[in-house]
């Protein structure tokens, strides 16, 4: 097949092939490769040869191809014959199909003729009808337009007449403004009539504009508001495509409508401004009705809010503008200098934006004056916004019943008040931050004078509270007020930083001396006073005072950590060995005094501040109280332990031994001398170092009560006890009473002793055991008799409550057991006297009675089992049981 490759090329041309053979050139040419086809390889191209040879090759090739065709036909003759038969049958089918198609074409042509003619006729009629309807609509709109135009003319004339009448009526009204006879009523009626006329004219103008611009352009006209008027150069066609402005009868009224619209718009804007300025809700409602009739209410409200926000922003920018402040301050300074001719002229090089030490007061005064003006302007604008919003909420259109606020919200993202507050907070925050960054003077003045700045905003909130729903009180703060105050957060942060520095400096100064000069009463008072002063400075603002309270909590925590590091907790702080107090005890006393003074004064802040503020301080105050108690409690425990150890020495004395009456019976026992000396040491060397006021008095009473209670308990279990021992104990009691009375004296120079009657039950118990004779009145029997003290009572009197008045039942029980042969509770259980007294202090009276009852029962059982004669002890057992029964009944 390679010999026939040249003839199989799609672009094969017999004439070009013959010309190539005659010319002896290859075919096809080498440079004529067909696009998209592979070029024929050079070996496939016929070589240059003679014509006779080429003809012979062509003849041979033709014969060869003919043979091949014959062979193919011979081989596939059956398939070729069947294909020929099929083609013949298919030609018959194609003939029938062609006939059907011809019939279909003829039917389609007939159907087209039946439909096309009526359709063309209908189309012509519809077109004619549309033109008639269009002409009718134009005529209707033109008629309506002419009627409205004439009505507008009448309304405009009426409006002019009422304006003239109102102007003439204003003059006598101004003169007789305070006349209560009703002179102002006609003027008010004229104003109301004029407002209604303007609203009607606005409605007519809006309808005329809608007719001029067509229904399709009514919405765009309303959307553009005042920017689009009936006098626009390009007239908008109606939905039928016929512009009403092209009609001569209509075009003659266009200029009048333009003038009327401009006049009504001006009147409406004047009414809005007057209503906002005077806060006249009635006038404002009339102007908003006019704007609604003009289809410009949303745009009007949006522009008003934007104008008020911009006015506030401009005032804020001006208040923080240091250039204007410097000009105003220097201008006042120049005026003062010019008014005093004696002062020499001073050289002024240029206007300074930062004050000097000389001009700082003038700059500060100018700044606060501008801030006061800013606060007043902010209040005025805010009241106007809320008045506008209030009218929008209440006012509805009388025809459509559409709420004006809903109409305004079509273009507003939020309520007018919310939009204003957001803009106010953003502007205030921006200019306050920028001014603080650009001017050191403003930063220092407003941060140090932040309470004064905050008071200006309190006045601002108070002014607007009457007209708005904003609340700023210690109980509740409206989100709007918090938003505004957050704008001043940079100044608040600086103020709080300074306040924290003052508190920390007070603490650092108190502990500056370290261990050698520990803080005492003065330092504690200074710290508490600093905290109180800072809280009082911020007391007027609920948010600021809470922030200052947090700083105070931090400073108190630092103070407690410093105290904790200085406290001495080793044995030297609770030892009473030397003739004087140890330095460690003096150090702890100073620290305790500092904590007490600071705690007591801080605890008094609950009378001056709100519960929320005190609740913030309360945990720190309680921690300070706990630190104070943890500091003094080991010392008080050591005092009780030391005194108890001395009192227990009385058990070393044999009170049952008979002593010569003429011997030294007037002197006190050795343990009592030690006790008196120790009490004197505790008072002069220990307690005197604590300057804690009434708390010290409480300590003294507590120690006296403990000594009396412990002494009475030990005396009640002293065994054996004879008559000489009783007299000796009586002498010791008198010495103890005198020592305790001296211990309670606050002023050493005072000659009066302490009032032991204030001690209560402990002192009455001591007196009941000491007095040789006491006069008692028996009210029930009406008798007057004498009663001996407990030590000298007969056995039969021990169970009489009137004979043992003032003594606890446990003491009487102890004394009964001391007189009896029965063992005392501590002897029965194998305790020491000090252990038993400690057990009694730690348990209730009923538990002590139960312990004695158990001892009595045990004695009875042991006596019965051992066969002892219990007749002697029986009397004391009955006495003890009687005392127990009386005590349980009482």
UniProtKB/TrEMBL annotation:
Residues 161-180, 219-239, 334-355 are annotated as: Disordered. GO terms for biological process: intra-Golgi vesicle-mediated transport. It is a peripheral membrane protein. Keywords: Golgi apparatus, Membrane. Residues 10-152 form the Conserved oligomeric Golgi complex subunit 5 N-terminal domain. Pfam families: COG5_C (PF20649), COG5_N (PF10392). Residues 244-461 form the Conserved oligomeric Golgi complex subunit 5 helical domain. Residues 219-230 have a biased composition (Low complexity). It is found in: Golgi apparatus membrane. GO terms for cellular component: Golgi membrane; Golgi transport complex. This is Conserved oligomeric Golgi complex subunit 5. The lineage of its organism: Eukaryota, Fungi, Dikarya, Basidiomycota, Agaricomycotina.
């Amino acid at each position: 097949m390679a010999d026939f490759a040249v003839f199989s090329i799609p672009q094969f041309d017999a004439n070009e092939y013959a010309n190539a053979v005659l010319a002896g050139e290859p075919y096809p040419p080498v440079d004529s490769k067909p696009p998209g086809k592979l070029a024929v390889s050079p070996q496939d191209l016929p070589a240059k040869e003679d014509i006779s040879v080429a003809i012979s090759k062509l003849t041979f090739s033709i014969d060869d191809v003919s043979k091949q065709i014959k062979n193919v036909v011979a081989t596939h003759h059956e398939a070729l014959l069947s294909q020929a038969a099929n083609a013949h049958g298919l030609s018959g089918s194609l003939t029938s199909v062609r006939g059907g198609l011809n019939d279909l074409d003829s039917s389609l042509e007939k159907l087209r003729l039946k439909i096309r003619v009526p359709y063309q006729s209908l189309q012509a009629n519809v077109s004619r009808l549309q033109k008639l309807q269009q002409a009718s609509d134009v005529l209707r709109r033109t008629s309506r337009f002419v009627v409205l135009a004439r009505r507008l003319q009448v309304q405009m004339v009426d409006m002019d007449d009422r304006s003239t009448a109102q102007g003439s009526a204003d003059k006598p009204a101004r003169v007789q403004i305070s006349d209560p006879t009703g002179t102002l009523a006609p003027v008010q009626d004229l104003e109301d009539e004029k407002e209604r006329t303007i609203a009607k004219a606005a409605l007519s103008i809006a309808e005329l504009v809608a007719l001029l611009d067509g229904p399709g352009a009514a919405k765009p006209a309303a959307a553009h508001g005042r920017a689009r008027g009936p006098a626009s150069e390009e007239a908008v066609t109606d939905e039928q495509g016929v512009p009403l402005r092209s009609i001569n009868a209509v075009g003659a009224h266009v200029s009048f409508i333009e003038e009327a619209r401009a006049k009504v718009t001006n009147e409406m804007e004047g009414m809005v401004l007057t209503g906002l300025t005077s806060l006249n809700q009635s006038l404002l409602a009339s102007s908003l009705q006019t704007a609604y009739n003009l289809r410009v209410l949303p745009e009007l409200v949006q522009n008003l809010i934007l104008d008020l926000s911009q006015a506030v922003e401009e005032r804020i920018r001006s208040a923080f503008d240091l250039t204007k402040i410097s000009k105003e301050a220097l201008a006042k300074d120049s005026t003062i200098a010019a008014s005093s001719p004696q002062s020499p002229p001073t050289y002024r090089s240029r206007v300074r934006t930062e004050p000097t030490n000389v001009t700082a007061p003038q700059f500060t005064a100018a700044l606060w004056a501008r801030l006061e003006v800013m606060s007043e302007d902010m209040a005025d604008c805010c009241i106007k916004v809320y008045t506008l919003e209030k009218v929008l909420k209440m006012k509805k259109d009388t025809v459509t019943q559409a709420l004006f606020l809903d109409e305004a919200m079509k273009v507003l993202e939020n309520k007018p008040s919310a939009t204003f507050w957001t803009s106010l907070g953003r502007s205030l925050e921006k200019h306050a931050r920028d001014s603080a960054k650009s001017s050191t003077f403003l930063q220092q003045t407003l941060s140090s004078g932040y309470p004064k700045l905050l008071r200006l905003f309190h006045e601002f909130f108070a002014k607007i509270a009457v007209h708005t729903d904003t609340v700023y009180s210690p109980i509740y703060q409206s989100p709007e007020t918090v938003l505004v105050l957050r704008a001043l957060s940079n100044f608040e942060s600086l103020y709080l930083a300074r306040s924290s520095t003052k508190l920390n400096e007070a603490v650092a100064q108190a502990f500056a001396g370290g261990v050698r000069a520990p803080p005492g009463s003065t330092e504690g008072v200074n710290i508490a006073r600093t905290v109180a002063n800072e809280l009082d400075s911020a007391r007027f603002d609920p948010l600021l005072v809470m922030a200052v309270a947090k700083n105070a909590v931090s400073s108190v925590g630092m103070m407690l950590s410093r105290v904790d590091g200085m406290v001495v907790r080793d044995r030297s702080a609770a030892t009473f060995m030397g003739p004087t107090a140890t330095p460690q005890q003096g150090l702890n006393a100073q620290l305790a005094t500092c904590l007490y003074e600071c705690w007591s004064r801080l605890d008094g802040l609950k009378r001056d501040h709100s519960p929320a503020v005190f609740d913030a301080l309360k945990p720190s105050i309680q921690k300070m109280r706990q630190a104070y108690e943890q500091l003094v409690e080991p010392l008080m425990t050591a005092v009780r332990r030391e005194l108890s150890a001395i009192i227990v020495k009385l058990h070393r004395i044999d009170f049952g031994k008979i002593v010569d009456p003429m011997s030294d019976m007037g002197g006190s026992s050795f343990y009592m001398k030690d006790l008196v000396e120790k009490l004197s040491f505790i008072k002069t060397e220990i307690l005197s170092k604590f300057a804690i006021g009434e708390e010290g008095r409480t300590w003294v009473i507590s120690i006296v009560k403990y000594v009396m209670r412990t002494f009475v308990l030990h005396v009640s279990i002293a065994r054996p006890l004879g008559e000489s021992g009783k007299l000796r104990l009586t002498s010791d009691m008198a010495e103890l009473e005198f020592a305790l009375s001296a211990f309670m004296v606050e002023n050493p120079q005072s000659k009066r002793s302490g009032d032991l009657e204030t001690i209560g039950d402990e002192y009455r118990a001591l007196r009941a055991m000491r007095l040789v004779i006491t006069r008692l009145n028996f009210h029930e029997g009406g008798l007057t008799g004498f009663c001996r003290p407990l030590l000298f009572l007969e056995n039969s009197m021990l169970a009489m409550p009137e004979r043992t008045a003032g003594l606890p039942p446990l003491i009487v029980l102890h004394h009964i057991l001391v007189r009896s042969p029965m063992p005392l509770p501590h002897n029965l259980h194998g305790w020491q006297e000090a252990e038993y007294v400690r057990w009694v202090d730690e348990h209730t009276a009923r538990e002590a009675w139960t312990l004695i009852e158990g001892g009595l029962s045990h004695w009875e059982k042991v006596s019965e089992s051992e066969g002892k004669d219990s007749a002697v002890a029986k009397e004391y057992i009955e006495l003890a049981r009687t005392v127990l029964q009386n005590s349980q009944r009482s």
